[in-house]
Amino acid sequence: MKIYFLIFDIYGLGGTVRTVLNVANYLAENGYDIEIISVFKFNKEASFYIDPRIKIKVLVDRKKSNGSGITGKIKSDLRKIRSFVIHPDDEAYSFFSLFSDIKMIRYLKTIKKGILITTRPSFNILATKYINKNVTLIGQEHLNITIYPARMKNSIIKSYGKLDYLATLTDADTKDYEDLLNNQKVSVIKLTNSVPRLEHVKSNLENKVIIAAGRLVNQKGFDLLIDAFEIVKERYPDWKVKIFGKGRDKRDLTLRIIEKGLYNHVLLMGPTNDIELELENASIFALSSRYEGFGMVIVEAMQCGVPVVSFDCPRGPGEIITHGEDGILVEDGNINEFAKELMNLMGNYEKRKELGNNAIDSVKKYEIDVIGNEWIKLFEKIKSNK
After folding, report:
1. Is 172 within 8 Å of 188 (Cβ atoms)?
2. Architecture of the structural domain at 2-195+367-385
3. Which residues form the Glycosyl transferase family domain (predicted)?
4. Hey, how many other C-beta atoms are within 10 angstroms of the C-beta on 82?
5. Where are any strands of DSSP class E within the chain?
6. CB 322 within 8 A of CB 171
7. Strands 328-330 and 284-287, how do they pair?
8. Which of 67-81, 154-168, 207-221, 322-336 has the lowest mean pLDDT?
9. Among 159, 119, 134, which residue's Cα sits nearest to residue 38?
């Protein structure tokens, strides 16, 4: 069976791109015929390694012009018309258009058999409407149902029951979706994100650096981290926070840093495609999110032996971290407590080392050889049912 992944932009940065490529590369290594359908291409080069055996199909290359003549004008006009198949509550809705709609629907209709894995609610919904009935549909949920607006939630309830499988990231999400989609044909299964194999990447935990990573958006709570470090810097003025990522909140975060006089302490570093190198040079990882689907960066930090201080936000951190053993969980949104736990680790090298060593062992269950094998078991099950 050929396996297709439908994703927003496989050339971009972000947790979804990393997790899709972890699985796709693993499957290609194990002899599977893999094709990634990338709706958009915004960058000339891929941010992460893509196995050369994987076919990449780009539907809308934003690096290319519309062209000239009548064809170019038609493309230009279609790109000005809003999408009618992408849900209006999709956070990336503004990037889609009638032009991308036509490209997606046309290409999906060329797939006659195999397995299609879709990677965001709008794509999950889209696939249930336009894919051939002989294709097995696996929808992925990278966020939890509780954070979606009512309109999106209603669309999910109407459409997800038409999927063959819905892959969730946590036990809590699995239960929520089972209850929500009760008595419909879809099978809800837990398949967590995975991390690639790492060799000899381990921090010595001696640098006075805290790092954080993610899109610069409200969800990630970097404003809360800045507020917490305002408390921390009075006691530990020689430590720094490095925040890796890009996003629409960069200006607001910059102003917040300046207003609090933290411009020598909290640094917006921009995006990186080598987070392992940054983790190797850090001593603490801070996750200040208001909500998560899973928390891929938590696992990556733990894999490098970097202790994590995280808000116990819905949903992922509480399932990944065992408080006091391999990381620290803080009451959701409690900035003072977050600052206190950061300082506890900043002043205690032995505790950092203990948590970091335990973390390396506890996240082995998320390595690609384990999670990749779970995907293979699912494909074998689908094959035998066919």
Report:
1. no
2. 3-Layer(aba) Sandwich (3.40)
3. 202-360
4. 12
5. 2-7, 33-41, 55-61, 114-118, 135-140, 165-168, 187-190, 209-213, 240-244, 266-270, 284-287, 308-311, 328-330
6. no
7. unpaired
8. 67-81
9. 119
HSE of 94 in the Cβ direction (CA atoms, 13 Å)? Answer: 1
Q: What are the tens digits of pLDDT across the range 124-137?
A: 999 999 999 999 99
Residues 6+ apart with CB under 8 A from 261: none
Element (H, E) at 126: helix 121-130
Which two tokens mark 101?
A: 């709609």
List pLDDT tens digits, range 40-64: 999 999 999 999 999 999 999 988 8
pLDDT of residue 261: 96
Tell me how far apart the alpha carbons of residues 149 and 142 are, in angstroms, rounded to a whole number.
Answer: 15
For domain 209-365, the CATH architecture is: 3-Layer(aba) Sandwich (3.40)
Token pair 């809003």 is at which residue?
A: 82
Residues 6+ apart with CB under 8 A from 109: 130, 131, 132
* Alpha-helical segments (H) within 131-184: 150-159, 171-180
pTM to 2 decimal places:
0.91
- The answer to whether residues 130 and 109 touch, using CB atoms and an 8 Å cutoff, is yes
Ranges of CATH 3.40.50.2000 domains, the chain: 2-195+367-385, 209-365
